[in-house]
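note to self: dont lose this again. the chain is below, predicted strucutre after it. 229 aa total, dont forget to put it in the shared folder this time
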Amino acid sequence: MPVKASPSKAVCLLSGGLDSSTCLALAKRQGFACYALTFDYGQRHRVELKAAHHVAEALGVEDHLVVRVGVNAFGGSALTDDIDVPKGREIAEMEKSIPVTYVPARNTIFLSYALAWAEVLGSADIFIGVNALDYSGYPDCRPEYIQAYEHMANLATRAGVEGATRLKIHTPLMDLTKAGIVKLAQTLAVPFGLTHSCYDPTPEGLPCGECDACLLRAKGFQEAGIADR
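---
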């Protein structure tokens, strides 16, 4: 009887938000053995760490690491410093400039950790739920950034230099609207109620309903015609 091949391993960045949870579920659907990677970087919305734990457990990952990265030591972001999170903005206003919720070099740092773990696991695949269509305003969510990072990663690793593997950074949500992501998430049975998107939750961990992340999420569910549980 032939031996069944083991599934390919993938490192999946998981914040506990809707996008990263959908990305993880999609990697699972595609047959990858998923290793979830979450970061405690001093973010004010630390409730997302609990959400990531519950999502990883619900979706059945092979392993889930939570890595402490002291990005908050530098400040410079409303997510890591004593800066007000913008509230009640129109979508058009969000599109005018990079928001103060941008965390300097965050995705570069996160992808570097994912790259290191992928090398150790013998994985050639990293999944990240970045999106450039339904505006988030972050420069490290653009396709040209991901392409440049992938090129660099294949120059910077032993696996890439020796030709053992060629790293691929998967961004399956890149060209989807938020409504498209919600619809995809529903087909993948993503547990909406376990995810967290708010940048400035209450002390009880409830979403504020007014920050950019809350407004974009609400817009996505409304346009998709799906209830946000």
